């Protein structure tokens, strides 16, 4: 089937964005990552992954949810390459 990309929004406990970002980089090897301001001091980490489309992305989402300090994970965009 080919490769796909998925972009997640990762919400963290207030002030833990850098710690969570470092942990995600260490254990998951994302293709890209950036911190984005939402509003009123709330920040979200956008994390991009590439994966084999036939494997699905649910395992990536579950792994993100298990990272210490993560409160919520949303799929922002998913596409086939």
Intertermini distance: 10 Å
The spatial strand order of the largest sheet comes to 2-3-1-4
CATH class: Alpha Beta
Give unreliable regions as ranges. Answer: none
| Second CATH tier, the architecture | 2-Layer Sandwich
**Chain-averaged pLDDT:** 93
Tell how many strands the DSSP assignment holds: 4
- Major sheet attributes: 4 strands, antiparallel
Element pattern in H and E: EHEEHE
Query: Helix share of residues?
Result: 10-25%
In CATH terms, the superfamily is Ribosomal protein S6/Translation elongation factor EF1B
Q: Tell me the domain tally.
A: 1
| Overall body shape | globular
Strand content: over 45%
Q: From the 3D structure, determine the CATH topology.
A: Alpha-Beta Plaits
Structural class: alpha+beta
Query: C-alpha Rg, in Å?
Result: 12 Å
Describe the structure.
By secondary structure, the chain is of the alpha+beta class. It is 25% helix and 49% strand. The chain has helices spanning 17-28, 58-65; strands at residues 3-12, 32-39, 42-52, 70-80. A hairpin with a 2-residue loop joins strand 2 (32-39) and strand 3. The longest helix has 12 residues, at 17-28. The mean pLDDT is 93.
């Amino acid at each position: 089937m080919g490769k796909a990309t998925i972009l997640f929004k990762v919400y963290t406990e207030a002030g833990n964005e850098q710690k969570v970002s470092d942990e995600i980089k260490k254990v998951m090897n994302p293709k890209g990552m950036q911190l984005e301001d939402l509003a009123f001091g709330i920040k979200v980490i956008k994390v991009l992954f590439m994966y084999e489309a036939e494997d699905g992305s649910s395992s990536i989402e579950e792994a993100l949810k298990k990272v210490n300090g993560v409160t919520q994970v949303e799929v922002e965009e998913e596409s086939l390459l």
